[in-house]
Design goal:
2 domains, 4-stranded antiparallel beta sheet, disordered N terminus, 9 strands, Rossmann fold, ABC transporter transmembrane region fold, 5-stranded parallel beta sheet, alpha/beta, 564 residues, elongated
C-alpha cells in the first residue's frame, strides 16, 4: 500500500499565485540592483550571440560570392564586428554568471535569515505540529527552490520579452511578413508550449515537493531512531518505506524530465519552421533583387538563433508550480502567529529572583485535558524547591511556562514581583539555567557544545564545571579530550554522559536560577547522589528548582511540593 502524500497547501483554500510571487519579489527588493544588472547582462549575451550568428552567415556568404564573381569586398569591418560580438558574448556570459550567482547566493542567505527570524518565535509551542524533517525541508530544500524565482522565472521572462521585441522589430525593417512569422512562432514556442508544460507539471511538481519532504522526514527518523528500530526489529520496514518514497520521487522526476524533453523538441521544431518560413519569404525578394543574396542567409540564421531568447521559458513555467508550492510552505510558517505574545514595552528588571505560581492551570489546547490545575507555590531567591511527581503530572510543563515557551491557561506567574508576561522571552530566559530531560547536542566537539552556554568561557572554567558534573575524568581519557566530536545528537556518547555534559553546560551559564529537570535520568544512584551534592555546593547561592520523580537530593531542599 502506498503512503498517502498530502498536498503542500489546502486545495479548498489555495493561495493566489500572483500574491505569492509578489511577496517573493518584495523579499528580493534589497537586491533588485543585482538582479537588474544580471538581467541586462543576460540580454547582452543573447543579442551578441544572435548578432554573431547572423553576421557570420552574412560574412561567409559574401566572401563566397566575392570569390566566385571576383568582386572586391571590405572584409575588415565585418571581421572586426564578428570578433566584437564574440568577445561581447564571452565577457557578458561570464559576468552574467558571476552576477546572477552572486545575487542568488545573497538572496538565499537573506531568505534563510528572514525565515529563521520568523521561525524562532514559534518555538517550541508553535512548531509542535511540524516534524523535524519537515522543518529541515523548509529551511533547506524549500528555501533553495526559491532561487528559481529569479534565475529560472523572472530573469528568463524579462529577457525573452525584451529580446523578442528587438528581434521582431529588426525583421520588420526588411518585411512585415518576416516579423509576423517570427511573432507567431515565438508566441507558440514562448507562450503556448510553456503554458502547456506548466499545466502538465502542476501535479508532479506538487508531488515532488510533498514526497521530498516525506522522504527527508523518514530518513531523519531512520537515522535518529536507528537504535530503537534495530531493537524492535522495525529497521527493514523503515528502509522499505524510504525506498517507496524514493521510487515515488523518481517517478515524478521522470515525468518532469519527459515534459522538459518534449518542450525542447517543440522549441526546436518552431525554430526550424520559422527559419524555413523566412527563407521561403526571402527567396522571391532575392530573385527580384529587393534583397541582397547574403542577407537571405543572415536573416535565416538570425531567425534560427533568435529562439535562444525563449529557450528557457518552458523550464521557467515548468519550475513555477514547484516553486510556488515551496513558497506556500515557507509562508505557512512565516504567517503563523506565536502562541505566546511578546510585550511591546521593555522587560522590567528583577531585583530579586523570586518565583510565584498563583493558582496556575495549563493545557496545551482547548481539546486536551489540563496538565496543571490550580497550581500554587513560591520559590524565594536563594532557596531550593523540589517538585516531585510521577510522569504525566505536568512537572516539565512548569519549566516551559517559566521560560515563556507556553502561556498559562489561567492564573498568574510572577518573577521578581513582576508578572511573567511583562518579560520578553529572551529577557526572562537570561535568568534561568536549565537542565532539560532531552539533551540537545550538535555534531561538533565537546568544547563547542559546552560553549553554547557561555562563548567567553575559558578552558579552566570548562574543566571546573565538568568536574562538578562528574564528567571531567572521562573526557580526559578520550584521545582528543575536549576536542572530541560527539556525533550527530551526541550519538557517540551514552545517555548518562550526555546528561552530565548537559548539567555542566547549565552550570557554565551564570544565571541566578538553576532548574534541574530529572537530572538523575540515565545515572545510577551513587553517581546521582555525588553529582547533585556537587551541583548544590557549586550553586549554593542560586535558587534551585529540582524536578524529579526520585528521592535523591530531596534532603538538601528547603521545601518539597508533591504533584498528583
Amino acid at each position: 500500500m502506498k503512503p498517502v502524500i498530502k498536498p503542500s497547501y489546502d486545495p479548498e483554500k489555495p493561495l493566489c499565485n500572483t500574491m505569492v510571487l509578489w511577496r517573493l519579489v518584495l523579499l528580493f527588493r534589497p537586491y533588485w540592483s543585482w538582479m537588474a544588472f544580471g538581467i541586462f547582462l543576460s540580454l547582452v549575451t543573447i543579442v551578441a550571440n544572435v548578432s554573431l550568428m547572423a553576421l557570420s552567415g552574412w560574412f561567409i556568404t559574401s566572401m563566397a560570392i566575392a570569390g566566385v564573381t571576383g568582386a572586391m569586398m571590405n572584409y575588415f569591418t565585418p571581421a572586426a564586428g564578428i570578433r566584437s560580438f564574440a568577445i561581447a558574448r564571452t565577457v557578458s556570459r561570464y559576468l552574467e554568471r558571476l552576477v546572477t550567482h552572486e545575487a542568488t547566493f545573497r538572496l538565499l542567505s537573506e531568505l534563510r535569515h528572514w525565515f529563521y527570524l520568523h521561525l524562532e518565535p514559534l518555538a517550541p509551542a508553535g512548531l509542535q505540529k511540524y516534524h523535524s524533517g519537515d522543518l529541515l525541508s523548509r529551511i533547506r530544500a524549500d528555501i533553495d527552490a526559491l532561487e528559481n524565482v529569479y534565475l529560472r522565472i523572472v530573469s528568463p521572462v524579462i529577457v525573452a520579452l525584451i529580446a523578442s521585441s528587438l528581434f521582431i522589430y529588426f525583421l520588420s525593417l526588411y518585411d512585415y511578413r518576416l516579423a509576423l512569422v517570427e511573432l507567431v512562432l515565438l508566441l507558440i514556442a514562448g507562450v503556448f508550449v510553456p503554458l502547456v508544460v506548466n499545466r502538465l507539471s502542476i501535479l508532479p511538481a506538487e508531488k515532488i515537493v510533498a514526497t521530498s519532504t516525506a522522504l527527508r522526514s523518514n530518513v531523519v527518523d531512520g537515522v535518529q531512531g536507528l537504535g530503537e528500530l534495530l531493537i524492535y526489529g522495525a529497521a527493514e520496514q523503515q528502509a522499505q518505506k524510504v525506498d517507496l518514497f524514493s521510487q515515488q520521487l523518481l517517478d515524478e522526476q521522470k515525468k518532469m524530465a519527459r515534459y522538459t524533453g518534449l518542450s525542447q523538441a517543440a522549441l526546436s521544431l518552431c525554430a526550424n519552421v520559422a527559419m524555413l518560413s523566412v527563407v521561403i519569404i526571402c527567396i522571391p525578394l532575392v530573385a527580384n533583387a529587393d534583397m541582397p543574396r547574403p542577407e537571405l542567409v543572415m536573416i535565416a540564421l538570425f531567425t534560427l538563433a533568435s529562439f535562444e531568447a525563449i529557450l528557457a521559458l518552458p523550464l521557467a513555467f515548468q519550475s513555477l508550480p514547484g516553486t510556488l508550492a515551496a513558497a506556500r510552505r515557507i509562508f505557512a510558517i512565516v504567517d503563523a502567529k506565536p502562541l505566546v505574545t511578546e510585550p511591546k514595552a521593555a522587560s522590567p528588571q528583577a531585583e530579586r529572583c523570586d518565583i510565584e505560581f498563583d493558582n496556575v492551570s495549563f493545557r496545551y489546547d482547548d481539546a486536551s485535558a489540563y496538565v496543571l490545575k490550580n497550581l500554587s507555590f513560591k520559590l524565594a531567591a536563594g532557596t531550593r524547591l523540589a517538585i516531585v511527581g510521577s510522569s504525566g503530572t505536568g512537572k516539565s510543563s512548569i519549566v516551559s511556562l517559566l521560560l515563556r515557551f507556553w502561556a498559562p491557561s489561567s492564573g498568574a506567574i510572577r518573577f521578581g514581583s513582576h508578572e511573567l508576561d511583562c518579560y520578553k522571552g529572551d529577557d526572562i530566559r537570561k535568568y534561568f539555567s536549565v537542565v532539560t530531560q532531552h539533551s540537545c547536542f550538535f555534531n561538533s566537539t565537546i568544547k563547542n557544545n559546552l560553549l553554547l552556554a557561555n562563548r567567553k568561557a575559558t578552558q579552566a572554567q570548562l574543566e571546573e564545571v565538568c568536574r562538578v558534573a562528574q564528567i571531567h575524568d572521562f573526557i580526559e581519557t578520550l584521545p582528543e579530550a575536549y576536542d572530541t566530536w560527539v556525533g550527530e545528537a551526541g550519538l557517540k556518547l551514552s545517555g548518562g554522559q550526555l546528561k552530565r555534559l548537559t548539567i555542566a553546560r547549565a552550570l557554565l551559564k551564570d544565571a541566578p536560577v538553576l532548574i534541574l529537570d530529572e537530572p538523575g535520568e540515565g545515572l545510577d544512584k551513587q553517581t546521582e547522589e555525588a553529582l547533585l551534592a556537587a551541583v548544590f555546593d557549586y550553586k549554593k547561592d542560586a535558587s534551585i528548582l529540582l524536578i524529579t520523580h526520585r528521592k535523591t537530593g530531596l534532603d538538601a531542599m528547603d521545601d518539597v511540593l508533591v504533584l498528583e
